[in-house]
Write a structure and sequence with these properties.
Layout lengths: L3 H23 L22 H22 L2 H15 L7 H32 L5 H19 L2 H10 L13 H40 L7 H15 L2 H12 L2
Helix pairs in contact: 3-4, 3-7, 4-5, 5-7, 6-7, 7-8
Amino acid sequence: MRALPKINAALLVVGLILLVAGIAAAEPLAVPTISLGMGKVSKPGDTAVVIQILFLMTILSLAPGLLIMTTSFTRIVVVLSFLRNAMGTQQAPSNQIVIGLSLFITFFIMAPVWEQVNTQALQPFKAQTISQEQALERGVAPIRKFMLSQVREKDLALFISLSKQTRPQNANDVPTLTVVPAFIISELRTAFQIGFLIYIPFLVLDMVVASVLMSMGMMMLPPAMISLPFKILLFVLVDGWGLVIGSLVKSFG
């Protein structure tokens, strides 16, 4: 009596296999085919879906580089990294938090610029009132204006001389490929300057703690271990996050 359920289950499995095999023999499984074609379009809305997906994947692959090179992200993430190293907290906050905070601050700072790109280039292009070339030119203009407002003349002159171009009459004559590296160099220089100022109070605290430990004869005790809680306490008492983030945002004004 106990073997009947096992026999019935085995027969059921065999029956299902035979049934599936019979259906497959009667109606073979059709493999779908995919074909790609290219045709002439008269407006942006007629662009093939496959081409749109290709453009989208290309933009997504280039988006991180564009975000780092043409926005305030570089300065923010470098300063926050300096702050973490100056405090000596190792991985607190973690890299994900530092990058996430830098991204949201970048969105906050770049919102007016991207709003101009949307109203001057994207929306008219979607409404088919301007061509693709005009949309690209109008979209780059606000970003160029932002970068030129932050770049140093010395860095800009460096890349103009390296490219062996003729001296431009004004900022509009400077190519975008020359503005972008000059902007990145200027952002790194500004970030290192802010990082140096951040290091000073924590360095003074480390020196005070090291002097106290040496005067007490505790030369084998690492000063960083003792100064870390005082660094965190000092940073919290002076509202360090508000000061650092506020200074970063105001530095782009």
